[in-house]
Design brief:
The chain is of the alpha+beta class. The protein has a domain of 129 residues: DD-peptidase/beta-lactamase superfamily (Beta-lactamase), CATH 3.40.710. 34% of the residues lie in helices and 10% in strands. It is built from 9 helices and 7 strands; from the N terminus they run αααααβββαβααβββα. The strands form 3 sheets. The protein has a 3-stranded antiparallel β-sheet, with helices on both faces. A two-stranded antiparallel ribbon has the order 1-4. A hairpin with a 4-residue loop joins strand 6 and strand 7. The longest helix is centred in the middle third of the chain and has 16 residues. The N and C termini lie far apart (41 Å).
């Protein structure tokens, strides 16, 4: 599990499940039988396949589909009413379109998962497919921040809701050193030692966060007690636009600088 969560399992980054499998079960079987490229713990390879394996772990351990598990265990208790997989048609007017899909679906995508492999998995996967908005993500970030610093629930959504052990939260959000030199925590990332990452250059070394392919990011800094959420649809109309790589760290630096006294 630790290798999967730190993207050091040795699994490839990606294979075209949407082309090579016709059903969710066939796609999962293909993932589970994919040969490793490296020995576990040897090399960092950001792997969507690893996240798909973890999807199956959660579903087997929880006894229910991932979307239902998260709705009942996390999003519902936290009051995250705009966060879910497979958003209903009534949400269409609130959802930004993503890419014009030229590889598979041959149309502009709006209100359905952008990732082709997640689409083949029915729109529900650990690596893609979750929809949300800034207020909901702020509620989630406040909850994580409170748990990370050991603050009690305040009844306003900060640490209200599910309350895992603070020590466990700290372990998941702390750099693991697997493989050597990697910045990865368990599921999360941490700021780069070189100072260049989506976290920018002024987050503390205790910060943790993650990015999304379509142009999103969330960084939480327990030392400064702040979080920065960025939601964009940089893939509209095409994923060829990579300028988000410069935008993310700049936004993070500006936000932290505005919130923290010099």
């Amino acid at each position: 599990m630790r290798h999967l969560l730190t993207h050091s399992s040795g699994l490839p980054a990606w294979i075209p499940l949407f082309r090579d499998a016709k059903t969710r079960d066939a796609a999962l079987a293909l993932v589970d039988s994919t040969a490793l490229l490296r020995a576990p713990g040897d090399t960092f390879i950001y792997s969507d396949l690893g996240a798909i394996v973890l999807t199956q772990v959660v579903e087997r351990a929880g006894g229910e589909p991932l979307d239902r598990f998260l709705a009942q265990r996390v999003f519902g208790p936290l009051g995250m009413t705009a966060t879910r997989y497979l958003p209903p048609a009534g949400w269409q007017h609130r959802i930004a379109p993503t890419e014009v899909d030229t590889a598979w679906r041959k149309r502009l995508l709006k209100g359905e998962v952008h990732d082709e492999n997640a689409g083949r998995l029915g729109g529900v996967s650990g690596h893609a497919g979750l929809f949300s908005n800034a207020p909901d993500l702020a509620r989630f970030a406040s909850w994580m921040l409170a748990l990370r610093v050991g603050a009690p629930a305040d009844g306003r959504g900060a640490a209200a809701g599910p309350v895992p052990d603070t020590a466990l939260v700290r372990e998941f959000t702390t750099r693991q050193g697997i493989p050597a030199g990697s910045t990865r925590a368990l599921g999360w990332d941490t700021p780069s030692d070189s100072g260049y990452s989506s976290a920018g250059t002024v987050m503390s070394r205790r910060a943790f966060g993650h990015t999304g392919f379509t142009g999103t990011s969330m960084w939480i800094d327990p030392e400064r007690e702040l979080f920065v959420i960025l939601l964009t649809n940089r893939v509209n109309p095409t994923r060829a636009n990579t300028r988000i790589l410069q935008v993310r760290p700049r936004v993070a630096d500006l936000a932290v600088s505005a919130l923290v006294a010099p």
